[in-house]
Design brief:
about 400 residues, alpha/beta, 15 helices, binds N-(iminomethyl)-L-glutamic acid, binds fe (iii) ion
């Protein structure tokens, strides 16, 4: 395949250890098929079979949305209205709404409808340059629908130019017909469904929701033991609404990431540091639920825990379909710097998914790039509701 030399670019490589943002002004990137072969100063660039001048624009790694629930049926606009009239997220969940109302809509939707609805959300993300999206199950809570959600997720990767990573989230909520018996559900539905999904090649990682309104650490541990026996990495929704020990549990299992963590304490962050787990921050849920306790960002900085940012796109706690707005919220709500926000949706988001071939601009990495009509990378976090994407390059395709 012919090689292409990209010129007329400033490059925020997001490589660690050098200039802020790994910035190269007046740089060049040599693309060889789906891979980057060379990255550096324009003046030193090797020749390519063809040259593409991008007119002085800024190039970043294509953003990665590393935590979404974007396959689901229906919507929960009425619950949004209820919350504004005073009901809490937990009250709505305990009354059979919340996640369980989306479960009913997802079971009723059917494959084609789930695909169509999800594609609308995927296309919005691709329009902001996103090249990799993680998608979770968790709105089926029976074997048939959990498998269907994961098949829908895999299908999306065949009909759009995007890399899809799937997480099995069978331990998301106790279905209504189990009368609150999380143990029964975990042992008789969740774990057998995980085995079936894995046998069908549908699972890249195993997730859970460890919370008072969801599952205990003991219940999640049973799911994680099975994940471990199948050779699958784990991650966890932990310490979102309260602290019940999910972060420590996830760290014991060497989790790729621990997500939400508003109520995590310094000892929890220290356990994540020891385990090498990434902290995935989800400002869309914090904003939507009007949470007031921010995640312990300074502890993560002090203890060297990598921070990622994701949309958490879901119909309840985070009906957010924009990675750019996620970055803005990460800065305004959690106090991240714009550089932390950009590394949170590139280098650290890749790490949260266990991906080593994407998230930074460097030789040997996949050529997933975003070209922006901006001068400085801080502009990506700074504007609210304005998309300056010029072009997305997916696997080297211009
Ligand atoms: O990440 N925390 C649990 N799960 C989702 C919310 C799902 C929902 O409300 O439908 C989350 O916030
Ligand atoms: Fe989530």
């Amino acid at each position: 395949m012919a090689s292409s030399l990209l010129t007329g670019i400033d490059i925020a490589t997001m490589a660690e250890g050098g200039a802020p943002y790994g910035m190269i002004r007046d740089g060049a990137i040599l693309l060889d098929g789906a891979t980057m072969r060379w990255v550096g100063d324009r003046a030193d660039a090797p020749a390519g079979d063809q040259v593409e001048d991008l007119g002085g624009r800024l190039v970043t790694p294509a953003p990665i949305d590393c935590h979404t629930h974007l396959v689901f049926g229906g919507d929960r606009a009425v619950e949004f209205e209820m919350r504004l009239k005073g009901a809490s997220y937990q009250e709505i969940a305990r009354a059979g709404g919340g996640i369980l109302s989306t479960v009913l809509a997802t079971r009723a939707a059917g494959f084609a409808r789930l695909v169509d609805d999800a594609l609308a959300r995927v296309d919005t993300l691709l329009g902001e340059g996103v090249a990799t999206i993680e998608i979770k199950s968790g709105y089926g809570l029976d074997q048939e629908t959990e498998l269907q959600m994961l098949r829908v997720a895999r299908h999306i990767g065949t009909v759009r130019p995007v890399h899809i990573i799937t997480s099995f989230l069978g331990a998301h909520s106790v279905p209504a017909d189990f009368n609150g018996s999380g143990d029964d559900y975990i042992d008789n539905v969740c774990i057998p469904t995980l085995r079936a999904a894995h046998a069908e090649g549908l699972v890249d990682a195993v997730d859970g929701f460890c919370e008072g309104i969801a599952f205990s650490t003991d219940q999640i541990a049973r799911v994680f033991e099975v994940a471990k026996s199948l050779g699958l990495p784990v991650k966890l929704h932990a310490e979102q609404l309260s602290n019940i020990g999910g972060t420590q549990l996830a760290a014991r299992f060497g989790a790729l990431s621990v997500d939400h963590i508003e109520y995590a304490n310094r000892a929890d962050i220290s356990a994540m540091a020891d385990a090498g787990s990434v902290g995935v921050l989800l400002p869309g849920a914090f904003y939507t639920l009007r949470e007031t306790q921010a995640p312990p960002v300074q502890d993560m900085r002090d203890l060297g825990v990598a921070m990622a940012l994701a949309s958490d796109c879901n119909p309840g706690s985070s009906p957010l379909g924009s990675i750019l707005l996620t970055m803005n919220m990460g800065c305004t709500l959690f106090g991240l710097t714009p550089e932390e926000a950009l590394s949170g949706v590139t280098r650290n988001a890749a790490r949260a998914l266990g991906l080593t071939d994407t998230g930074v601009i460097a030789p040997g990495k996949v050529a997933d790039l975003a070209v922006w009509n901006i001068n400085h990378p801080a502009e990506l976090s700074y504007r609210i509701g304005e998309n300056r994407l010029f072009k997305r390059i997916y696997k080297g395709s211009l």
